[in-house]
Design brief:
The protein is α+β, with helices and mostly antiparallel strands. Helices cover 19% and strands 36% of the residues. The chain is built from 1 helix and 4 strands, in the order αββββ. The strands form 2 sheets. Strands 1-2 form a two-stranded antiparallel ribbon. A two-stranded antiparallel ribbon has the order 3-4. A hairpin with a 6-residue loop joins strand 3 and strand 4.
Length: 59
């Protein structure tokens, strides 16, 4: 299963290096991927300020 998760990560997040896939669930043709960033922070592209805080999440 770990190999499948790694392949899904490559397919779903090809340009994002700092992503950890926590789980993958396939049910009735729906794929749910629980992933999170493992980066210690990021630079906001508009103003260039670095932050370590989580600013949002999506379901």
């Amino acid at each position: 299963m770990e190999e499948v998760v790694l392949r899904l990560k490559e397919l779903l997040f090809p340009a994002i290096a700092d992503i950890a896939t926590k789980s993958v669930d396939v049910n009735n043709g729906i794929v749910r991927v629980d992933a999170r960033s493992i980066a210690d922070g990021a630079v906001y592209p508009v103003c260039g300020v670095r932050s370590n805080r989580v600013h949002g999440s999506y379901l």
